[in-house]
Amino acid sequence: MNTAAGITVPDTGLATAATELVRDTATELIYDHSRRVFWFGSLQGRRRGLSFDPELLYIGAMFHDLGLGEQHRASGRRFEVDSADEARRFLQSHGVPEDSIRRVWTAVALHTTPGIPQFMEPEVALVTAGVEYDVLGIGYDDLSADDRAAVTALHPRPDFKKRILAAFTEGIAPKPDTAFGNVKADVLEHFVPGYERGDFVETIQNSAWPE
User: Fold this and answer.
1) How far is the CA of 56 from the CAs of 42, 110, 123, 209, in angstroms?
2) Is the pTM of this model over 0.90?
């Protein structure tokens, strides 16, 4: 089923291909979460009166966590960048215009960077809005209980808090340096014994500059 809370997944070949790719390569946890991100982002966009491309929002939502997969754990790069590059390769393979690719890449790459996406293109803002709604509960009361129930009936979230934190830990622990300066350092600090987060002030004070 592709409709919930008055929002329908775009009925296009590109959206169908994205659905199949993510369903085949990601865990059920990430697949269901990514689908909810599309619905919650779309509902927030409707509430805010934003004009957005639902297909691009869908692609951004579906790809935003692919970089947590095992094949990316030795990349040495932030998982958000690995996710964004997966989206770019997918879109390029389908002949999507470069401006649209840039929007999706940016939406995926910035989805864990608070305070910036909401000032960018609607698709960028709404991928983050959907992620923040589903993971952090930001703006929880912005949407009705009926809309939440419709989305979670389609894509349930059993024990989601524990399971998504475990997925973050598994995806980032092999490359802990990529958490410097971003929210995923909190995840490693909570769940990886012996992890020491990078300190911005100490990095400045201990740099090679004499003063």
Assistant:
1) 11, 15, 7, 44
2) yes
